[in-house]
Amino acid sequence: MESKGSEAARILNEIETLKATRSDLDNRISALEAQLRHLNPEENSVVSCPSISTGFGHGLSPDMIYRYSRHLLLPSFGVQGQSNLLKSSILVVGAGGLGSPALLYLAACGVGQLGVVDHDVVELNNMHRQVIHTEAYIGQPKVKSAAASCRSINSTIQIVEHQEALRTSNALEILSQYDIIVDATDNAPSRYMISDCCVVLGKPLVSGAALGFEGQLTVYNHNRGPCYRCLFPTPPPTTACQRCADSGVLGVVPGIVGCLQALEAIKIASAVGEPLSGRMLLFDALSARIRIVKIRGRSLQCEVCGENSAFTRQQFKDFDYEKFTQSPLSEASLELNLLPEDYRIHSRELKERIGKGESHVLVDVRPDHHFKIVSLPNALNIPLSSLESRSAEISSALKEEEKRKDSGFESSASLYVICRRGNDSQRAVQLLHKMGFTSARDIIGGLEAWARDVDPNLPTY
Amino acid sequence: MQLTLEFGGGLELLCDSVKIHDVNVIPNLEADKLTMKDLLVWVRTNLIKERPEMFMKDDSVRPGVLVLVNDCDWELSGQLDTPLEEKDVVVFISTLHGG
Ligand SMILES: [Zn+2]
């Protein structure tokens, strides 16, 4: 056992050393590239700015002609479409499930300047859908990882890294540097913010979304089409805003929507085809159905893009999108605090009590399909939604436990409630107290805290 | 009146996770016609099994739900006053935010 452990430590050590060396090399390469740009700005523009004159009358160099030949061979795309693309600039907001394929295709197809905004780091549970990132980049900024992938596909275009969260304070400045914006974010406030910013700046917005087995796609603020607010003037209730981190998503679904976003951005940039403006594409993966529906045009009453609205840069900067949608701009998880302290218990304390043989019942209020992923031993699974109708099961489990212990020391068995992160368990404890289970206490931080503080071998998801 | 109703974007969870419902809705006898307003009431009574507030607000759909009558936004056909006809397809879809 011990030699295995030391072998693992040695390997881990070597990995760390190699990673450090790699990041050192990356830094040196960046520094040298910067030096080169400084020494030879002319030459550099050949590399990063594709619009040079070569005497064929279209500005495409021999390398570009070869690289993009299959585009040039398309009669309705051709030299003109490719030149337009090479002169265009596109910003992808979010390097996640949607942004991954969008960025890969936009880099490959020869968009002149490709920007990416994200503040997150690559995590293992992203990788089933965020296919631009590789395992080597786990723990590193998504922007860095995405930019590296794009550069490895196409070193002749300019990739711009915006390693920060998009906020009202920086959105105008960042978005104004691009012709077309791709919304590949994952939350409601960002969607309103990006749309409003595009209206203020007069930029077309390619908007995609995916959850579960479904995807949606449309182009806003283009060709007199609607903006996001024309369609959704009032934000939905927060309970209707499900996140991939809670509800799940089949990895390939955002992949498909992200590819379609790249397609729409390419159509607008190259001025080829008919953009999906005033229409919306609805994708249902399970039934293999794509439906394209006609949506309303620009609303004259729209508070941002309407006839009489004068939504200014300053108003945009001052607008509180988190308050407007009542949900956070970043994926950071919500942490409720609904209960008085003595209705709650830390996982470490509970572990001690269980170790001492305290008689108790542990109720896990997560949905059944969560319970099947991982659960604590002897936990009773009663999902929050059926807590009231199944309260008899809790009563009888408590009685059973008291009978089993029958020590006489404890007047009654304790009742503990757990969920994934410690929010639903608080709701459940509130409900249980109302139902008369006055010993009910919630385990602070849920299974995630248990895995962190008590049992590191418990899988998290 | 034979109608096909479809729920998507998570709204199907409110009606036993069934997405497509072929239904027969009897129009109001006095009016002798069926509008979207009538249909919403009918849906709420007959199809929505839980959390009706996730489907409706006041007498319309809640914010964030798109309504499509024969693949066309109901804003273009009169919203609640949109008249329905035999074999119409009405889609209720909740907007998604994930990525
Ligand atoms: Zn608008």
TrEMBL record, chain A:
EC number: 2.7.7.80, 2.8.1.11
Reactions accelerated catalytically: [molybdopterin-synthase sulfur-carrier protein]-C-terminal Gly-Gly + ATP + H(+) = [molybdopterin-synthase sulfur-carrier protein]-C-terminal Gly-Gly-AMP + diphosphate; [molybdopterin-synthase sulfur-carrier protein]-C-terminal Gly-Gly-AMP + S-sulfanyl-L-cysteinyl-[cysteine desulfurase] + AH2 = [molybdopterin-synthase sulfur-carrier protein]-C-terminal-Gly-aminoethanethioate + L-cysteinyl-[cysteine desulfurase] + A + AMP + 2 H(+)
Protein name listed in UniProt: Adenylyltransferase and sulfurtransferase MOCS3
Biological process (GO), any one: Mo-molybdopterin cofactor biosynthetic process
Pathway(s) this gene product operates in, as recorded in its UniProt entry: Cofactor biosynthesis; molybdopterin biosynthesis; tRNA modification; 5-methoxycarbonylmethyl-2-thiouridine-tRNA biosynthesis
Species per Swiss-Prot/TrEMBL record: Salix brachista
Family: In the N-terminal section; belongs to the HesA/MoeB/ThiF family. UBA4 subfamily.
Cofactor names: Zn(2+)
Main location class: cytoplasm
Keyword Transferase: yes
One Pfam match: ThiF
UniProtKB/TrEMBL annotation, chain B:
Cellular-component GO terms for this entry: cytosol
Pathway named in the protein's UniProt entry: tRNA modification; 5-methoxycarbonylmethyl-2-thiouridine-tRNA biosynthesis
Protein name: Ubiquitin-related modifier 1 homolog
The organism of origin for this protein: Salix brachista
Record's keyword terms, sorted: Cytoplasm, Isopeptide bond, tRNA processing, Ubl conjugation pathway
HAMAP family hit by this protein: Urm1
Subcellular location: Cytoplasm
InterPro entries in the record: Beta-grasp_dom_sf (IPR012675), Mopterin_synth/thiamin_S_b (IPR016155), Urm1 (IPR015221)
PANTHER family in the cross-refs: RURM1 PROTEIN
Cross-link (Glycyl lysine isopeptide (Gly-Lys) (interchain with K-? in acceptor proteins)): 99
UniProt family annotation: Belongs to the URM1 family.
Listed Pfam families: Urm1
